[in-house]
Write a structure and sequence with these properties.
CATH class of one domain: Alpha Beta
Shape: globular
Number of helices: 16
Number of strands: 23
Largest sheet: 7 strands, mixed
Strand content: 15-25%
Amino acid sequence: MKNSGCIVGVDAGTSVVKAVGFTLSGGEVGGHEIPLDLVSQHPTWVEQDMNQMWEGVRTCLAQVIRNLRAEGRDILGIGITSSGDGTWMIDADGNPVRNGMFWCDGRAGDIVARWYEHEVAAAAFDICGTAVHPGSQASQLAWLQEHEAESLQRAAHILHPKDWLFYKLTGLITSDDTDESLTMLRMSTRAYDLELFRIFGIEDLFPKFPPVKATLDNTGAMLPEVAEFLGVPPGLPVGSGPMDVAACALGSGAIEHGEASTVLGTAGIHQVVMDQPILEPRMVGMTLCHGVPGRWLRMLAAMTATPNLEWFLEQFGPALGVGADKGEEAAYARVERLAAQVPPGSDGVIYHPYLFPGGERAPFVKPSARASFTGLNLTHTINHMLRAVYEGVAFATLDCYRHMPIEIKSVSLSGGGAKSDLWCQLISDCVGKPVQVPEGSQFGSKGAALNLGIALGVYRDAQEAVKKSVRMARFFRPDAGRQKLYQELYEVYRATAEGQMEGWDRRARILKANATP
């Protein structure tokens, strides 16, 4: 392979699609991104136009490929990743049946609650190692059976977002074992288990599921018409997977037993690498196949992370001196300085970051969970609340790592929240482990690119890929004094959340009973 060679990684996220070129030494070159519109016909629904996502990916790829070719770089292939869970369906002609349903969609909350009440969720967990939540594909399919059966009748294939994009690029209908881990595989075999389909009551839909492949085998050749549009040779290699959380783990260097990876983005993705599937503690979090052979991930994915800060700034930004420029780095630096002026622990103010309509899914599943501040009194200021938001997301991170089945060694931190030194240090202090931030910014795209590089023989294996292409840029170590304080406050954080659970349910029932028809 020539030194000028690069692999393009695509990450189609919840609200933006990105394409980035990666040199074989891991450097980012020629990136481009496009925002996407979310569709919300009802308060708990989160959908996306599937064709809009494809057009966004096509446009991003065309721009990046033009840039790379202008620099004289050889394009060796394209790797794709996207969000897990959710439901994306196409008909026999390959057209979308309806909008894609995202992982953060909350419409199946009542079904999930029923599954927990009647031990359906428990029976499934014993096979797949994942606690179902409203965004799980199984619960969304059950909802469609009850409320939108005509869509299921029209569907020929039930996919995930990256599978849809892979189909549009190659014409192939497949999925990989990272995506299908949630929740349709037996973890010990990394294969579909019909018992799971029976447990969820969706066994009639099994023929509509795609073949599931190991991620390194989930490759194909680009369709001639797509290659012509993008300006690349027909048959250019395309790789599909791993899904975004596993791709981020690979792209940030977390591939060995005990290494942890946190993606602090729209969701708070917290995961640890295991050399065997451990389905403990029971009924907590998710177990999925890593994109690395012989590795699994135990993942606890809090529903929302950085949107807690974004929401706070949207509501109270003017009071903090942050206006319309709040998205700029200078504005966030000012906000961080204000939060840093408040003592650790926010003088007793605690924030629970359960902000999304679908409630919370890790380390507990509670569709009715909602965000709140506790501990306020007349001496507190908006700056206390601001710091409490930062700390609340860090407490949620600790809450997830407290429920992992093995001891973690360190945390590789990526996502938008990793830009914040305050958040990085808070997580190190709360978790009590070193935190390292890798060089670069697009680790999902990078993981997809590295996966394809391994499949093509550019790298011998994942270990060589990480050694050659992943480097750490910043390091944070826990402070013993702050760690002790945060461990004590975490117990208050946890107890306060547990004390609200019955009230969350009661409020949800009241709101549902009084909803406007």
